[in-house]
Design a protein that fits this description.
single chain, alpha/beta, 8-stranded antiparallel sheet, 6-stranded antiparallel sheet, 37% helix, globular, binds 2-deoxy-2-amino glucitol-6-phosphate
């Protein structure tokens, strides 16, 4: 949820770390800080004030604060925070420093037994923690062990041996200017070494500028970073030989590229990334090739049930996946929210295929659900964007979405590329099981190939949607309704709006309205009615008439041929002609733009909405 960067080397550590933190600010943005070893001194600077009129980010303020200082320091760790324990304040911001001023620590994740450890520190060592955070205990523990004569590596092993929870840690020690020590357990930590020095970070985007060849630490591994070397060790202090991951992302893909916000840029990235997701999976004969995934007919015949498990937007993609797989591959699918799946003793065995869907590959709820499913014998296939992420590495097979870095907290291209992968998986399974004909496969593939250019066409609606946003941005409640696949897309459209505009928004299957929710309709209500499914168009029209009769302002989204929706709605937005199954890839683009322009009209912080973080690595 937070971002970590550390650097030791020839260069100016302050610049490297602040630049990296700038790239990670989307991971957490309520406070930020840096600790540097500077000529025998451990210096710490933090920033956490509420947004002021300058509208500057915490990292730029930190940059201002450090302008004339620490230019010679070659060792630094930095952090950008999304508060879990304790309010966003300078006191609670990282790095945390031990009471003796010897150790500084940055931490992502949660130390679950921190109260116990705080009590022990007080009783046994007379050390009272100053902040409300769980993280500070790590710095205090390390200082106790270093004061006892351990070096930072042994102290880290001893401290983490006492801790419960999930953590990525970076630590420096005033008496040892030659090292940064990092540790990982259930929270991502990446390291790389170049001629310039050694770097650690919680996220690839912070390192792209320095190297694309990185090492992902596994659980209970520790990295010893020195200016001229780097070593990854296990808990027995044995050197671990690890695979290098080459990350195929350009720095430019992690920049705004002239757009006002990352979210808008990422909405506009969709034609290209969808094309990429699809074309990487088509062989020279235009047939689906699952890119190294060994899913044979024998394997498929053994699968009695599929679970698609995910959170938030990825869960919404999973809902569409269920319809596709059941329709084309005739295998029963359950879709579950990861935080629920794990605790309800799901019926999973070796005949279950568990599909995890996740942009970051680090969402702890999804990771824990995956481990639970594996424990019960399921085969795990994951649909992941971030190469080398924890979920990718713990899966039997990985289907990468190839969306490139997604920086805005509100997922857009992440969702549509996840959908594209689910179309391909469902079609592939159907072909193998012969539950679809070759003509159906060909027809759907042709439709999928036309999606990128259709999405480009839809983006031309921006002006119209901006006008609409001006009319509705002050509304207090907005509904999204639809039937079939449209009901799934309605959920995603509604989530987009609430997370960046903070308008109370609600999505419901249109047929359910009459069972209660229609009571909420009045002249103050906006309803986005998705009506893209041919067989359900008339039923949707009836639902639209019902809500209009209660004075709701209805904006319908339907196919170009359905001109008759104009009479029943205040406004109609059209998607191009296509088969019903692929409409989610198109209608969502309009809903993404609606959420974006409403939030913009309201003047909200679109890329970094309040209370949210891009990657949720706590339960
Ligand atoms: C999307 O807009 C959200 N910010 C959020 O729901 C997100 O999709 C969810 O946290 C899952 O993340 P993941 O795809 O990285 O696992």
């Amino acid at each position: 949820m937070c971002g970590i960067v550390g650097y030791i080397g020839k260069g100016c550590a302050k610049d490297v770390v602040l630049d990296g933190l700038g790239k990670l600010e989307y991971r957490g943005y309520d406070s930020a800080g840096i600790a540097l070893l500077d000529k025998g001194r451990l210096a710490v600077e933090k920033i956490a004030e509420i947004q002021d009129e300058s509208n500057k980010s915490k990292i730029s303020k930190l940059q201002d604060l450090l302008k004339e200082k620490y230019s010679d320091a070659n060792v630094a760790i930095g952090h950008t925070r999304w508060a879990t324990h304790g309010t966003p304040s300078v006191l609670n911001a990282h790095p945390h420093v031990s009471n003796d001023g010897m150790i500084a620590v940055v931490h992502n994740g949660i130390v679950e037994n921190y109260s116990e450890l705080k009590e022990m520190l007080l009783k046994k060592h007379n050390i009272r923690c100053k902040s409300e955070t769980d993280s500070e205990v790590i710095a205090q523990l390390l200082s106790v062990f270093c004061a006892d004569g351990l070096d930072l590596v042994d102290a880290m092993l001893k401290a983490t041996g006492m801790m419960k929870g999930a953590y990525a840690i970076g630590a420096i020690y005033k008496n040892d200017e030659n090292k940064i020590v990092g540790y990982r357990k259930d929270a991502p930590l990446i390291a790389c070494h170049t001629d310039e020095g050694t770097f650690i970070a919680s996220d690839m985007t912070a390192l792209l500028k320095h190297s694309k060849d990185v090492y992902f630490l596994d659980d209970d591994e520790l990295v010893v970073c020195k200016a001229d070397s780097m070593q990854i060790l296990n808990r027995n202090k044995e050197v671990v030989e690890k695979e290098i991951f080459h990350i195929d992302w350009n720095i430019e893909t992690a920049e705004k590229g002239g757009y006002d916000h990352f979210m808008l840029k990422e909405i506009h990235d969709q034609p290209d990334v969808l094309e990429d997701t699809l074309s990487r999976r088509l062989d020279s004969n235009g047939r689906i090739n699952l890119d190294g995934i060994s899913l044979t007919l024998d394997d498929l015949n053994k699968i009695k049930k599929i679970y698609i498990v995910a959170c938030g937007t990825a869960y919404h993609a999973g809902l569409v996946g269920k319809t596709l797989i059941e329709k084309w591959a005739k295998i029963p699918v359950e879709v579950d929210v990861a935080s629920e799946f794990r605790y309800r003793d799901p019926l999973v065995d070796e005949n279950t295929l568990f599909i995890a869907v996740t942009q970051s590959g680090e969402t702890l709820d999804t990771l824990m659900a995956l481990r639970e499913a594996k424990k019960k014998g399921a085969r795990v296939l994951s649909i992941v964007n971030v190469v080398g992420s924890s979920i990718a590495r713990e899966s039997d097979d990985v289907f990468y979405t190839w969306a490139g870095p997604e920086i805005a907290v509100a997922s857009t291209k992440g969702y549509t590329t996840q959908l594209m992968c689910l179309y391909l998986i469902a079609l592939y399974m159907g072909r193998l099981k012969e539950t679809i004909s070759a003509e159906t496969e060909k027809k759907v593939l042709e439709e999928l190939k036309s999606v990128p250019s259709k999405v480009s066409g839809l983006l031309k609606n921006e002006g119209k949607i901006e006008e609409l946003a001006k009319k509705i941005y002050e509304k207090r409640s907005i509904f999204y309704i639809g039937r079939g696949l449209d009901a799934n897309v309605a959920l995603e459209g509604s989530l987009k709006l609430k997370e960046i505009s903070y308008i109370n928004s609600f999505a419901i299957a249109a047929g359910e309205l009459k069972h209660g929710t229609i009571a909420l309709m009045d002249e103050d209500t906006i309803v986005f009615a998705l009506a893209t499914q041919d067989e359900l168009a008339e039923k949707m029209l009836s639902n639209i008439v019902e809500v209009s009769a209660r004075d709701a302002y209805v904006v319908s989204i339907t196919k170009e041929k359905n001109d008759f929706f104009k009479d029943a709605s205040e406004m109609v937005l059209f998607i191009p002609e296509c088969i019903d199954e692929v409409t989610p890839l198109l209608s969502i683009v309009l809903l993404q733009l609606i959420a974006y322009f409403v939030a913009k009209e309201r003047g909200e912080n679109i890329d970094m909405p309040r209370n949210l973080a891009k990657s949720v690595t706590v339960e």
